[in-house]
Amino acid sequence: MSQVKTSKRKRVNFMIDEEILKQLNEHCHAGDRSDYVNQALEESIKAANRKKAFELSEHFIKKHRIKMTTAEIIRLKNYGRK
Question: How many domains does the chain have?
Fold first, then answer.
């Protein structure tokens, strides 16, 4: 498991389904779980932010009747991805 960038961390307590915990334990050792979950949450939050930004831009484009090419739409959709 690759190390997540070192930053200030805080302990949290939350519940997850037993099946998800079982799968998590299959993917990483107990000592690596925090890094694994942290990375997964970071990726999920980035994806949610991209989706929200795309929806806002789509609303703006429709509201202002802006015409875009397919290439421009794809470039906008993929903005910020690796």
Answer: 1
